[in-house]
Queue: 4 jobs
Job 1
Amino acid sequence: MFQTQETEERIDRLEQLALLMEDKIGDDIAMDVVGSVNVGMSEVSSDIDMILYLRCDSGCAEGFAGCERYRQTEAMIREILGDRFKAEILDCVDLNRVEKSIREKNYECEATQRFVAYRSLCRPIHYRVIAPIEDLLNADMAYRKELEGSIRSYFRIFSTTSEHVHSFSKYEARLGAVGIKLPESIRGKIQRYLQGGEKEPMPDAVP
């Protein structure tokens, strides 16, 4: 209801970017946005923080930053976005590896663990690329829930870091600036959760 115009502009531009890149390189590309774009509170100065999804056969043994496929895609993203929006790619997930892991019921695959985590929390761009993988994941909910359980402790640790708490204060201030005040009961619940005082289940999805 309270999504900013700056957020809408960034979402629109990312959707255009995904289609342009698909035409240029002929491969599927998708993103999950995190941070201020994900929660709809972007301002003029806000970066675009994203998770990149590609199909890659290199294996990326040295991490995605050392992958030539990733470097080419990153350069193209920055070229298309230009100076209007600053993008930060926080992670890159190889959908080929995730798909293989799901079919093999591999509980130890870090790429799949990250995929499950991002899909639980983030807002997708060009979702039709991600959808078949998520459908495959959802075909075995026991497997998905087991993965969610294995990474829930990471969210507990993440949610109590000072930077995460600072981010909540920042978003609350932004809401206040446009005249929106969180009900004290909701604010208290969020604060208790951030401080590790409540055992909330990890959400299946955040719109």
Note: The longest strand covers residues 87-94.
Job 2
Amino acid sequence: MQYARSEAKAWAKEKLVGQWTTMITPFTAEDELDEKGLAANIEHVLRLGTRGLGFSWNMGEFWSLTQDERYRLMELASHLVRGRALVAFQVTDTCLKDVVAMAHRAEELGFDFVILAPPYLVTKTEEQVVDWVARVAERVDIGIAFYNSPQFGIILSAKAMARMADLGTLIAIKEASFNLQLSIDTHLEAGAKAVVSMPDEEIFFVGEPYGIHQQVMFANTSDWRFDTVSSNHYVRFIDLATQGKWDEARQLYSKIRPIKAVSRKWWGRLAGRTGGALPVQMVKFWGELMGMAGGPVRAPVLPLTPAEREEMRHDLARLGLTKAMEGEAKPPRVTRLLKHQTS
């Protein structure tokens, strides 16, 4: 952590910029953390030019990890990134003591902030969620980003998030409801008090009339699903758009649009048949097709069928992505990992 408690908001305003990635958590065929795969994935993503890495976020399957695995992942991530980018860790849980303990450990390991969502199951009102975040904030010094997503069973209004943003260490809001109007309202209501990000580039196309300038894409999987090292159009688009260089950004977006269309096809198909669950199985296999370590998903998520895997393979080949990967230099092999610890 690079700031004092009283400096958290100013630090975030200055440092949370550009493209942030959501890292998947790779598993081996034996259903263990794939530590070598994680190391290779980190090297690959850093080579794309991403500014920050989010570990154990929703696409990182935090909900399927044991507590020991969450702490192990935290230690590995800190060790492997080694200060070459900003890092954040999701500490969402239904137990306040566990949330606080993970946040303290993240601070000890040098993470830049933690992300926190409602404690699903028992939080049914906005007042409960705001109170929950306040209870965490008063117990830890590390900055907190709030995660507004239907995956947690409740979506907060812009006004509720604006009240939450009054907390001294509430530095950011990931407004991931995918309700465009709510994202706009959150920028307008809370944007002066915390960094607000909708994790979809649509916000750049509609924000200007409202005076919205989103400074960070915080965070998604589009960098390592859409880009290769020699053709990182997505990361460069986000960098330009978040800097307000819209004419240059718009020219790049024409190269992204065909890939986005395929992503929306698969996202919509899988989310539609699961009642809106995030399509983790899709992004993990897509990552594998791009040369990353993915491995299986954990229950209750169901894997892609063989026919779906073949169809996705064909879709990415048609876009030229998998062919482009054949010519990419592989990231350096990482063999030195931390001695296994969970404390």
Note: The longest strand covers residues 143-148.
Job 3
Amino acid sequence: MERAKRINYSITQVDSLIKLNALFNLEEGEKLRDQEVIVQIKVPKGVVVRFDKSLLGYLSDVDNVSNTWDNNMVGRRWQMTTAGLKCIDCEGLDLSDVDEDFGTPPVPPTPPVMINNNGISINDKDANVKVDKSGINIKSKDGNVKIDETGININTKDKAQ
């Protein structure tokens, strides 16, 4: 509990729009201990919600009356009923968008920043950075940088430099 109290996370609400921060901050001097933030939002009966596509891969175990996979819930409107969330704009839904057989759920996108016991991984469309016990490895469309116990190695795609 003491460690959780030292996590700084903010949620912004403007009218009916709730914005969740993608990141949280730790107090200065706080060590990384695989902390995470779980946001649980309780929706009153009768209220309609729409999960923005930015939540794709972040929704987890959202109860709904049709047992729709979390990633298939984004971009649609859901109304809270006594029985749970019910889709109100799924009529005529292309069945290729829904996992009817409840097999393996869709794979969520890789988070842009991953910090765990293996190190730090930052993924962007133009570059990837990995920091682990072997060193620092940066890969981009323009070249690669590797820093390890042997030194610094820089390779660029443009050999004219």
Note: Residues 13 and 60 are 21 Å apart (CA to CA).
Job 4
Amino acid sequence: MNDLFSVSSDEWDDDDAAPGGTPGRPRSPLAVRMRPRSVEEVVGQQHLLGPGSPLRTLAGGADVPPGSAPTSVILWGPPGTGKTTLAHVIARGSGRKFVELSAITAGVKDVRRVMDEALTSRDLHRTTTVLFLDEIHRFNKAQQDALLPGVENGWVVLIAATTENPSFSVVSPLLSRSLLQTLKPLTAEDIADLLRRAVRDDRGLAGAVELDEAALEHLVRLAAGDARRGLTALEAAAGVAQSGTGVDGGPVRVELVHAEKAVDVAALRYDRAGDQHYDVASAFIKSLRGSDVDAALHYLARMLEAGEDPRFVARRLMISASEDVGMADPTALQTAVAAAQAVQLVGMPEGRIILAQAVVHLATAPKSNAAYNGINAAVADVRAGRGQGIPAHLRDAHYPGAGQLGHGKGYLYSHDAPHGVAAQQYAPDDLVNTDYYEPTEYGAERAIAVRLERLRGIIRNG
């Protein structure tokens, strides 16, 4: 099967690790050749690999106490931070059988077969099966449930990898039976050390190139914390440098121009269905609220360049216009709604200009959450049971018999009153004189506050 890879740790094939590869076989990518063989070679994630840590214990091949189940682990982190690497390192322990499944192509049938084989290996051969399941978030509930017997009974050591928050993407029974380990993005220094190692290591470029410092900085910046992306970019840059140089036996110098030619732009890390989606959107809204127009434009560009639906952005702008700007600038909502409509008519990529105008308007506008706070306070009172009944003079008096009930009696028509404001009770009896809307002193609300004070004085005091 293409999606199933099984090998005993004692039979691990390192042919591809050699710089030239095995004759007759394609050379493996640099990122594969540089995959660590031990915990000591792992770059970053030292917060998870300290002495006595579960991952180090698993990687060291420590024996599982009799009668206890091996520890299954869920590795959560951005791409290129070492999830697959850690799984391979763990699988190298003595007496281990490594099985790899991809949730993209595997199904329940594949999972059950692995579990059956793992049980046989444990009982007959005393071999522990390490099941690495990549992108577990792509498994549906039924597929994840199929993993439970093997995990719960200790038939396999499950190493599941995901780029999405397991709280949202992994079923609770499986999550509770596994140890969640959160991987952090690699630092710039981590990536730089890895690239330097790849240049000199026999499994990597074996000293065939020299890496210019400016080129190294560019590759590190493009990697954006992703080791795989950094190694791939380095290999491409080395290829560009070597293609334009004659064979003289000496190392080829990889300069900035080679790195720039090999990799035009960095791929953006943004998962529209995962936690990155919510993190970037949250930063976007908070930048608008905080009046940082430059940061807001950055997050707008980040979402759009990653392929985010512009309608999602437009909806967030309309909400922000009322929640964070409100009556301090009543035209903000008009701009946001117009932007949403215009984007649907114009489309992308020109729609980015329209969204940018709305972002600039909202970010630079005076801010007020008075309307937002007002409706929240009113909702809280309704949920608490306050506001019982409606004053009789405000009730509907149009249907037959309403007059006999006193509906509408004594109602004052506002347009007949001085200034168009009638002095009468509007709120329920238990909410008379309750203030929900409290305007700020910012923007247009400064004038609204003065007018509101006069309106309340007329309505409540006559």
Note: Confidence is low (pLDDT under 50) at residues 1-26, 62-69.
